[in-house]
Amino acid sequence: MAKLRLGVMISGSGTNLQALIDACSGPDYPAEIMVVISNRPGVRGLERAEQAGLKAVTIDHKAYEDKETFEDALHDCLSEHNVELVCLAGFMRLLTSGFVNRWRDRMINIHPSLLPSYKGLHTHARALEDGVRFAGCTIHYVRPEMDNGPIIMQAAIPIDADETEESLIAKTLTYEHKMYPAAVKLIAQGKVRVAGNKVAFKDTDMGDTGIISPLP
Ligand SMILES: Nc1nc2c(c(=O)[nH]1)N[C@@H](CN(C=O)c1ccc(C(=O)N[C@@H](CCC(=O)O)C(=O)O)cc1)CN2
Ligand SMILES: NCC(=O)N[C@@H]1O[C@H](COP(=O)([O-])[O-])[C@@H](O)[C@H]1O
C-alpha cells in the first residue's frame, strides 16, 4: 500500500516535525514527508528537515502583499509535491477559509490545550493562571474558525503543584511528540473518518475514544 504523502508546515523549532521525521523513518510507518514548508526563514525546523534529507522550503508571509497570494504559494508548493495530508506543526499563521476549504479534511493541526478550552495563544500560562488541574494537547482537523475542527486525538496532562509555564510546555511537548505520529498513522491506515463536526474511528484498538493517556 502506498504511503500517505505528508506536507508539514512549521514556523519555528520543529520538535513535532522531528517526531514525524523519526516516525517516518520506520520501514512499516504508513506515511512519508514529501515537503516541509516554513513561513519564517532560518528557523530550526528547516535545519531538521535538511538534516533528514527532506525538501525544505521557505514561503515567507512577509514577502507577499496579502494572505491570498501567500496562501496561493503554499497551495502550489503542496500540490507540486502531491501532498495528501497537510500537518500543521507549530504553524503560527491563521489561514483563510479559502485555503482551509481547499484542504478540507486533508489538513490537521496540533494545539497545546484540551480543546475547546484555551483556543489561541499562550495556552499553558492561561491554564496555570486559571488553576485547572489538567492541561493537555489536541490534534484536530482544521476549519476556518481557529482551533475549532473535528477532534482526532487528545491527551490529558496532570498539572503538578510546582508546575511552571516552562515545565508545562516541556511536559506537553513530550505528549505531542507521541500523539502526532499516532494520529497520522491512524489516518494513513484509513481508520479515521470525519462525521459532521466529529471524528469516528474504524477498527482501532483505542476503543473509539481517541484519548492518549498514559502515553503509548
Ligand atoms: N483557519 C485556521 N488557521 C489555523 C488554525 C485553525 O484552526 N484554523 N490553527 C492554527 C494554529 N493555531 C492554533 O493551533 C494558531 C496559530 C496562530 C494564531 C495567531 O494568532 N497567529 C497570529 C500571528 C502570530 C505569529 O505570526 O506569530 C496571526 O495569524 O495573526 C492562533 C492560533 C494555524 N492556522
Ligand atoms: N496554536 C498553535 C500552537 O501553539 N502550536 C504549538 O506550537 C508548538 C510548536 O513546537 P515545535 O515547533 O517544537 O513543534 C507546539 O507546542 C504546538 O502545539
UniProtKB/TrEMBL annotation:
Give residues annotated as binding (6R)-10-formyltetrahydrofolate.
K67, M92, R93, L94, L95, N109
Q: Which Pfam families match?
A: Formyl_trans_N (PF00551)
Pathway it acts in? Purine metabolism; IMP biosynthesis via de novo pathway; N(2)-formyl-N(1)-(5-phospho-D-ribosyl)glycinamide from N(1)-(5-phospho-D-ribosyl)glycinamide (10-formyl THF route): step 1/1
Question: Which keywords belong to this entry?
Answer: Purine biosynthesis, Transferase
The reaction(s) catalysed by this protein are:
N(1)-(5-phospho-beta-D-ribosyl)glycinamide + (6R)-10-formyltetrahydrofolate = N(2)-formyl-N(1)-(5-phospho-beta-D-ribosyl)glycinamide + (6S)-5,6,7,8-tetrahydrofolate + H(+)
MF terms per GO, please? phosphoribosylglycinamide formyltransferase activity
Q: Its domain of life?
A: Bacteria
According to UniProt, residues marked as the site described as Raises pKa of active site His are D147
Q: Where is the active site?
A: H111
Provide the function of this protein: Catalyzes the transfer of a formyl group from 10-formyltetrahydrofolate to 5-phospho-ribosyl-glycinamide (GAR), producing 5-phospho-ribosyl-N-formylglycinamide (FGAR) and tetrahydrofolate.
Query: In its UniProt entry, what is this protein called?
Result: Phosphoribosylglycinamide formyltransferase
Q: Which organism is it from?
A: Kordiimonas lipolytica
